[in-house]
Amino acid sequence: MAAVWSDEGKLRRWLDVELAALEGWAEVGAVPGDAAREIRDRALPPSPARVAELEATLHHDTAAFVDAVAEQLGPEGRWVHYGLTSSDVVDTALALQIRDGGAVLVSGALAAVVSVMLTVQTPLVTPDFALRDTIVVLAGVVVGGLNRPIPATLGGFAIGFATGVLGGALPSNQSQYLPTFVFAVVIVVLLIRPRGLFDFSKTVERV
After folding, report:
1. Please, where are the H alpha helices in the chain?
2. Do the domain assignments include residue 77?
3. In a domain, 18, yes or no
4. Whose CA is closest to 36, among 91, 71, 82?
């Protein structure tokens, strides 16, 4: 949660908004596609210290952020913040932060509920307590899509259903191969569709 509301997290979300807007402008031809791609590949969130340094001169936090991003990019930096107002960036990024914070709260609450349920089933807590369940849940999230709760949930249901069917179909002396199947599915999904099988949203991706 601290990372979501930190200065670094805020600037990272500001950059996400800028990049998403640039991609939209490039699609309608208002911004050169090559410039949008180069900015997407090269732009990094500036440090809070650099933004604060520029803000001391500019007396405007968004303008300082835009200059801090643009100075990384050379001539292509002139397209950063194209067609946007400060409110467009700040308000949209704030909405993303609220969503991220809500996801942290919901995931924490669900983890607490699941912990209680597992403890009731297995009162003795050992070092490998719920390890298998955690691996299956992680596999489901990766298969569904890490970035959004609904695809991640669908991935969890898919993995749970698949492991249930295979667990019932496999002979008891071969049930130890079930985790191998789960790991194989995760590897294949990461190779073919890293965003997850159920994440069909259009997002800006950076390496």
Report:
1. 2-5, 7-27, 33-42, 48-58, 61-70, 86-121, 131-144, 149-169, 178-192
2. yes
3. yes
4. 82
Domain boundary among 92, 120, 142: 92
pTM recorded for the entire structure:
0.68
For residue range 155-197, list pLDDT tens digits in order. 878 887 877 787 777 777 766 777 777 778 778 877 888 777 7
Contact present, 39 and 19 (Cβ < 8 Å): yes
Whether residues 21 and 84 share a domain: the answer is yes
The parent domain of residue 142 ranges over: 130-207
Is 149 within 8 Å of 106 (Cβ atoms)? yes
What Å distances lie between residue 160 and 138, 140, 151, 171, 188, CA to CA? 11, 8, 14, 18, 17
CB 182 within 8 A of CB 136: yes
The answer to the question of residue 164 being in a domain is: yes
Whether 54 and 136 map to the same domain: the answer is: no
Helix (H) and strand (E) counts in the chain: 9, 0
Residue among 23, 20, 48, 44 at smallest CA distance from 34: 23
The CATH number assigned to the domain holding 49 equals 1.10.275.10
The answer to whether the CB of 177 falls within 8 A of the CB of 126 is no
Do residue 18 and residue 80 come from a single domain?
yes
Angle at 78 between CA 80 and CA 52, to 5 degrees: 60
Span 102-116, pLDDT tens digits: 878 887 887 788 778
Q: How distant is the alpha carbon of residue 95 from its chain centre?
A: 15
